[in-house]
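Fill in residues.
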């Protein structure tokens, strides 16, 4: 049988924390993951809601063991429930009870934007080591080819001495180097046919290499390497070296970092400055200059993520979700005398299995993106890190088409020029063929003269013997 409160009034304490709660009682607006969750449970269990705002989540008073804020009001019975990204931990479980956790978050951190870095190795990174090795090997082969050709020309003496000297003046290594850097070689027509074949093959290879290299280099320069504090260990190291200051709020989560047995967390907690709230910490990070003083603020991953969306994505750096201090389990606190926890747990489990908290989170993202210019206006105006927006023309497929057409036109012109040069200087092949034929005829004549000389010597010896 369904639990029915028969329109009983429940007092709900809240604090507005995007994306978990966004309550406006005057306008009867109940938004956010937990705001919608409370409204669903009110409709299901038939109770009415009275929202009461409390800005402080609450912290434990060490003197008498009582709590302040929302937890304190639940503890002394002023509120029946509370919402506003209230996480579950051991100290809070001693003071109040919690309904089944409805959302899992992580305690992460945010810092100044990552510094973009372009290293000296940027000119090498477009190609792998194997490509550079093969290019170096090709130049070595060109040198060996040049030496072999020079030796063959000097031995065979196919052409005249004047032409041999002119051919020896052309260095295949230097020609290949000019083609690689797309520089003209004015005496390219004077080299012999075998060297031209080598140069043509290298010209095609150089065309592919230079285009690939230019594309890879532009990609690297468009998205340069970033030096970011993307792990908890890096943050602890920066804190230990006093390169960065961590900011904290006077709650048990931040004091637990300072008193932690883990040396990494302890290094982060011992170099911490306390601020009044989250907004002050974010403002200090936004207003600080990257090259002078850096801040880090450990906080809820989801809340930092939504803050980035509101004020502009690149203005804060948020490490990957896997890099966090510990998980956070959000639940709805109720008093120790609340007897309907089992019934509320059942409805929470059904909503989680249906995926509704994730859906409500996505809805909050769409709302913030739609109203980002209005929501983030206060952050932008109050921060000295703000910049004027500039209209950037987006790179479309039309630009790609224009570049492709230009590339095809220039490639066609290069091919036509290559074919024309081959036909114009085709006479060199005929000269080489005629020289080879003359050499072959000369060898045959020498063999014939040898045979005739051998026959004459043989006749002379026979006549003398007779």
């Amino acid at each position: 049988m369904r639990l029915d409160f028969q329109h009983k009034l429940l007092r709900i304490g809240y604090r507005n924390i995007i994306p978990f709660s966004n309550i406006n009682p005057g306008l009867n607006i109940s938004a956010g993951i937990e705001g919608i969750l409370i409204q669903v449970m009110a409709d299901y269990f038939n109770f009415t809601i009275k929202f009461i705002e409390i800005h402080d989540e609450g912290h434990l008073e060490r003197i008498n063991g009582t709590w302040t804020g929302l937890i304190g009001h639940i503890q002394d019975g002023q509120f029946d429930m509370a919402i506003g990204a209230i996480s579950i931990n051991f100290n809070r479980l001693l003071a109040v009870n919690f309904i089944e956790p409805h959302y899992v978050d992580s305690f992460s951190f945010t810092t100044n934007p990552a510094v973009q870095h372009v290293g000296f190795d940027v000119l090498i990174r477009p190609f792998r080591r194997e490509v550079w090795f093969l290019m170096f090997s090709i130049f070595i082969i060109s040198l060996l080819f040049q030496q072999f050709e020079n030796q063959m020309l000097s031995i065979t003496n196919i052409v005249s001495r004047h032409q041999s000297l002119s051919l020896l003046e052309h260095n295949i290594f230097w020609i290949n180097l000019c083609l690689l850097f797309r520089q003209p070689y004015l005496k390219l027509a004077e080299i012999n046919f075998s060297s031209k074949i080598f140069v043509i093959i290298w010209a095609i290879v150089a065309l592919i290499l230079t285009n690939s290299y230019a594309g890879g280099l532009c990609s690297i320069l468009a998205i340069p390497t970033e030096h970011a504090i993307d792990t908890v260990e890096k943050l602890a190291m920066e804190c230990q070296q006093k390169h960065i200051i961590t900011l904290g709020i006077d709650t048990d989560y931040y004091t637990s970092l300072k008193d932690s047995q883990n040396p990494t967390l302890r290094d982060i907690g011992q170099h911490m400055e306390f601020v009044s709230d989250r907004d002050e910490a974010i403002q200090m990070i936004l207003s600080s200059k990257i090259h002078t003083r850096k801040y880090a603020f450990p906080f809820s991953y989801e809340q930092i993520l939504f803050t980035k969306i509101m004020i502009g994505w690149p203005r804060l750096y948020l490490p990957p979700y896997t890099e966090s201090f510990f998980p956070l389990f959000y639940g709805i606190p109720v008093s120790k005398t609340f007897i309907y926890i089992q019934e509320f747990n059942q409805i929470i489990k059904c909503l989680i299995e249906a995926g509704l908290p994730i859906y409500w989170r996505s809805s909050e993202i769409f709302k913030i993106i739609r109203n980002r210019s209005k929501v983030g206006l206060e952050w932008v105006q109050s921060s000295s890190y703000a910049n004027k927006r500039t209209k950037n023309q987006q790179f479309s497929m039309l630009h790609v088409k224009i570049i492709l057409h230009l590339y095809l036109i220039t490639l066609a012109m290069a091919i036509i020029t290559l074919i024309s040069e081959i036909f114009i200087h085709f006479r060199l092949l005929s000269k080489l063929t005629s020289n080879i034929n003359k050499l072959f005829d000369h060898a045959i004549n020498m063999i014939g003269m040898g045979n005739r000389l051998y026959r004459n010597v043989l006749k002379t010896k026979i006549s003398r013997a007779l």
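Residues 158-168, 375-393 have pLDDT under 50 and may be disordered.
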